[in-house]
Design brief:
The complex is a heterodimer of chains A (about 375) and B (about 600). Chain A is α+β, with helices and mostly antiparallel strands. Helices cover about 20% and strands about 30% of the residues of chain A. Chain A contains 8 helices and 22 strands. In chain A, the strands form 4 sheets. Chain A has a 6-stranded mixed β-sheet with strand order 6-7-8-3-9-10, with helices on both faces. In chain A, strand 7, helix 5 and strand 8 form a beta-alpha-beta unit. The longest helix of chain A has 18 residues. The N and C termini of chain A lie far apart (about 70 Å). The C terminus of chain A is likely disordered. In chain B, the strands form 2 sheets. Chain B has a 3-stranded antiparallel β-sheet with strand order 1-3-2, covered by helices on one side. In chain B, strands 4-5 form a two-stranded antiparallel ribbon. In chain B, helix 21 packs antiparallel against helix 24. Chain B is flat. The chains are: A alpha+beta (about 375), B mainly alpha (about 600). At the A-B interface, strand 6 and helix 2 of A face helix 19 and helix 20 of B.
């Protein structure tokens, strides 16, 4: 049933709505059979990009290629794509079977063929018993399956998903996410999945394209995007809680300094931003305020007994069960968040020593783009 | 538990109240014939006395008139006759005292209504005894109230029928008596005025002599009897016809001078029946009193279970207090007139005639064979065909103006203008546009070499012209409603269909039309109802003409009521129209309900 998957290539695609540029000169290649996730905040142009691929919007410039054909003059119906919408877009006046068969019906397929294919897809999605119901009689999850089935029925070369999980509750969202991943593994079809949820993006995508203000900021595997964010936006958008930042300024001695850190070396930038993910901080409790019991031994998180880079006060501790998030009042003017194992006994008001895993830090230039990892800073900054 | 007890008491109270009201109705109904009988006896005595006073009339004549039920007594004995009614002979000099025994026709007590009332009361009691469920929530006791109302109505109608039969019998006997009196008076050589006086004619007092063209009404059956009477058939001025026509112009039989003799006097004898007409229709009082009973009983039934719970009672009373002004207005100005028109439709009701005899469903029956009415109905039906056409145009316009640009907004405004313009203004302007001679339409046609069209003066074209104007009038409103309907269809459905490969027609067919189905249905029903009620256009532009080609139902009703003053017929027509419109509306709501369950 499944066919040769199609590649989707965007070349300099641009779309404006009045004065607003929704999509700005996007170049993107989605490989055949790939599950690509477009992720970004609201209004970043990811849905518009998807609609441009589907042909629901007229592009202002650039080319959209699907497979080996340029889609400039091809109507949406002729692009061999199927789309699943956030609101599912099921037709309320049709039964589930009619909804599923609609795409085939408007293409003039015969009734037996439609019925056979609808039954096939309904079996795959477990919709067999619901075929004669109307969408209004289905639960949210069932409607979502029907929407998925409506896309599958036509056996398209490319699947387009426009935030299909946003209307589901949390548990159902996780389950459906897995099902879509499984579906992709089984069908092997090219899929483009739009979401604003970075967790969803990282867990589902084979590759992830992070978008902001109409531009693709970074394309890469989830690991690449997480571990080597191309710029400050990606660094801040991907990961929860977001990456800690510290503003660094070049001092008179030519060294970059910020808070307790002074970085040696010949850096060409006047300013930079240091980024450290919360899990790359290691905490040790040193003193506890008030007359209560002091920590009998210095509690360390992470286990390594490395020398601390700075000390700070924990302002607030959020316990998530498997871990805790400790909000700190440092370094310097910044307020960082650290992830600590739940075994660490830390409370609000504790004085903690913070160690940094320097190999995993990030340094961004004044334009926000990544320079590389920060090396261990030299001695304390001169008074 | 107290609530449950009260709930069980309700139907018993209702049954008692129903029985009491039924008896009340019967008493009221029985009273009317007995009063009429008394009245007739009095009139007979008076006629006999006048007769006796005339020269040449003998005692035997008087006795023959009264069929042996009279005794001529000494003046001293007047009024004291055992079991008799003694009367002084009206305005005449008392030539004699005449006592007339009341007619002994045997009292036909209305058994059927009595049995019905009793049965109904028994049914309610049985229902009360057989009911074994928990006390109902304190809401209006619809079922008992409905039962009461139905039973009262049944009893009232039966009682009315019975009373009517009695009254007819009395009036027939009075016809015979009057006829004989006039004959005797004529034979004795009395002048017509005296004869009329003897016959108890209303203008004997001279009050009606100046109005020879007054139209008097009498029951159809009596009219037919008069028409069948050979003595009356030959009467020159009688316009009484058998069968349908039931009025008679009381012309100047008595103004022809003293030479006129009995046969001419007999010409006016139909007026004898006025006595009957005045006593007819106790049903108004019956129905009104039974409705009052129903209201009172239901109110008591409603408040009874609440009495155990003072808080609920006070809340309910307060709520009804707030509701009363609005409810009173509604009753007075909506339901009142509605019921009154239903009442009128059951009677032979003319504005010029004080008598409104009850006809039952005869008005409706007569409508079945009324060609003019059916022609008006057909014209209304044909006119209504403009609705689908207008809807097609409006839907096209709505689709065209879907993307709202400035020019389109102006077009929309222009198209909507007719909907907020006075129908009369529209009609006057169109009448001018379509004038045969100087109308703009024919001028334009003439300018391009086409012959003048008789837009409004040809029976074949006039209705079509009105339909075109009808389209023009409603299209703007319909378009705006369609636009609202279109705006409510989610864009994403179109997106999904587009990606699925549906073309513009398929999107229209599978998305737009189903998405608009409620709107379409709403517009269809409201427009059809509006089209059933078309009046202003016809009234101003064609007055139903030419040759009745544009005589539509409402205009027909209007003419029947306000030109021919036949309110009974007009009310019956109105109720037929109401039935049709109501059915359409009911279907509409049923449809919406059913659909609402799905969507």
């Amino acid at each position: 049933m499944t066919r040769e998957p199609r590649a989707v290539v965007l070349k300099g695609v641009r779309k404006r709505f009045g004065d607003v540029t929704a999509v700005a000169d996007v170049d993107l290649e989605i490989r055949p059979g790939e599950l690509m996730v477009l992720v970004g905040p609201s209004g970043c142009g990811k849905s518009t990009l998807l609609r441009l691929i589907a042909g629901l919007e007229e592009r202002d410039a650039g080319e959209v290629w699907i497979g080996d054909r340029c889609m400039d003059e091809v109507a949406p119906g002729g692009r061999d794509v199927a789309m699943v919408f956030q609101s599912y877009a099921l037709y309320p006046h049709m039964t589930v079977a009619e909804n599923l068969g609609f795409g085939l019906r408007v293409r003039g397929a015969g009734t037996p063929a439609i019925e056979g294919r609808v039954r096939e897809v309904a079996d795959v999605l477990g919709l067999r018993g619901l075929l004669s119901r109307r969408p209004g009689q289905l639960s949210g999850g069932q409607q979502q399956r029907v929407a998925l089935g409506r896309a599958m029925v036509r056996d398209p070369g490319v699947f387009l998903f426009d935030e299909p999980l946003s209307n589901l509750d949390a548990a159902l969202r996780l389950q459906t996410r897995d099902e879509i991943a499984a579906l992709h593994r089984r069908l092997g079809t090219t899929m483009i999945f739009v979401t604003h949820d970075q967790v969803e993006a990282l867990s589902l995508g084979q590759r992830v394209a992070v978008m902001d203000r109409g531009r693709v900021q970074q394309v890469g595997t989830p690991a690449e995007v997480y571990e080597r964010p191309a710029n400050l936006f990606v660094a801040g958008f991907v990961g929860s809680p977001p990456m800690n930042r510290l503003h660094l300024v070049r001092g008179r001695d030519g060294r970059l300094a910020g808070g307790p850190f002074v970085f040696p070396g010949p850096l060409d930038h006047r300013e930079a931003t240091l980024g450290v993910r919360p899990e790359d901080l290691t905490l040790a409790v040193v003193t506890r305020p008030g007359p209560g019991p002091q920590p009998d031994s210095v509690g360390m998180s992470g286990g390594a007994h490395s020398s601390a880079e700075f000390t700070a006060t924990s302002l607030r501790v959020e316990s998530l069960g498997s871990e805790q998030r400790v909000h700190l009042d440092g370094p310097g003017e910044a307020a960082w968040v650290a992830r600590a194992p739940s075994a660490l006994r830390v409370a609000a008001g504790d004085r903690v020593e913070v160690a940094v895993v320097w190999e995993r830090t990030h340094l961004f230039g004044p334009d926000g783009s990544r320079i590389g990892a920060a090396s261990r800073p030299g001695g304390a900054s001169p008074p | 538990m107290r609530g449950a007890g009260a709930a069980r008491v309700i139907p018993l109270v209702a049954a008692g109240a129903a029985a009491a009201a039924g008896v009340l109705i019967l008493v009221v109904a029985a009273d009317a014939p007995s009063r009429a009988r008394e009245h007739a006896t009095r009139e007979e005595a008076r006629a006999a006395a006048s007769l006796y006073e005339l020269p040449g009339v003998t005692e035997a004549d008087v006795l023959s008139l009264l069929g042996g039920r009279a005794r001529i007594m000494a003046p001293e004995a007047g009024g004291a006759g055992p079991g008799a009614h003694a009367y002084r002979a009206g305005a005449l000099e008392p030539a004699a005292w005449i006592a007339v025994e009341p007619r002994d026709e045997g009292s036909r007590w209305p058994w059927a209504p009595s049995v019905l009332a009793l049965l109904g009361a028994l049914c309610m009691a049985a229902w009360a005894a057989g009911r074994r469920r928990s006390p109902p929530p304190p809401r209006f006791p619809a079922a008992p109230a409905f039962l009461c109302a139905a039973m009262f109505a049944l009893v009232a109608v039966t009682a009315q029928q019975w009373a009517r039969g009695e009254l007819e019998a009395i009036s027939t006997s009075r016809l015979a008596g009057g006829l004989r009196a006039a004959e005797i008076a004529g034979a004795a050589g009395a002048d017509p005025e005296a004869a009329a006086r003897v016959a108890g004619l209303p203008w004997a007092s001279g009050a009606a002599l100046g109005e020879p063209d007054r139209i008097w009404t009498m029951p159809r059956e009596v009219g037919a009897a008069i028409a069948a009477d050979p003595r009356l058939r030959s009467a020159p001025r009688s316009t009484v016809a058998a069968g349908g026509a039931i009025y008679h112009r009381g012309t100047v039989a008595l103004r022809r001078g003293p030479a006129v003799r009995a046969e001419t006097a007999a010409d006016t004898l139909h007026l004898v029946f006025l006595g009957y007409e005045e006593t007819t229709s106790p049903a108004v009082a019956l129905i009104a009193s039974s409705l009052g009973c129903v209201l009172l009983v239901s109110l008591v039934l409603f408040l009874l279970p609440l009495a155990a719970r003072p808080r609920a009672l006070s809340r309910t009373l307060a709520a009804w207090g707030f509701l009363t002004p609005a409810a009173a207005l509604l009753l007075l100005f909506t339901f009142g007139p509605l019921l009154f028109s239903l009442w009128i439709s059951l009677h032979d009701w003319r504005l010029v005639d004080p008598a409104h005899p009850f006809l039952g469903l005869a008005n409706y029956r007569a409508l079945l064979g009324d060609g003019a009415w059916w022609s008006a109905v057909r014209n209304t039906g044909v006119f209504t065909l403009h609705v689908p056409l207008a809807m097609a145009v409006a839907l096209s316009l709505a689709l065209l103006t879907r993307e709202s640009r400035r020019a389109v907004r102006w077009a929309r405004l222009a198209l909507f203008l007719p909907s907020i313009t006075s129908v009369v203004a529209i009609a006057v302007i169109w009448k001018w546009l379509l004038n045969d001679g100087y109308g703009l339409a024919n001028r334009v046609l003439g300018a391009i070499g086409l012959g003048p069209v008789a837009w409004l003066s040809s029976p074949d074209i006039a209705l079509v012209s009105l339909m075109v104007i009808g389209v023009w009038m409603v299209v703007g409103y319909q378009m705006v409603v369609f636009q609202a309907g279109l705006a409510a269809i989610p864009r994403v459905w179109y997106d999904a269909a587009t990606v699925d490969g549906a073309g513009p027609w398929q999107r229209f067919r599978h998305i737009t039309l189903p998405g608009l189905r409620h709107t379409l249905f709403f517009v269809l029903v409201t427009s059809v109802i509006g089209s059933f009620q078309v009046f202003g256009l016809v009234y101003v532009m064609t007055e139903g003409g030419p040759l009745g080609a544009t005589d539509v139902a409402v205009y027909h009703i209007y003419r029947e009521a306000w030109e021919f003053l036949r309110f009974g017929n007009a009310a019956a027509m109105s109720w037929i129209l109401f039935g049709v419109v109501f059915a359409a509306t009911w279907l509409h709501f049923r449809f919406l309900e059913r659909r609402g369950a799905h969507a």
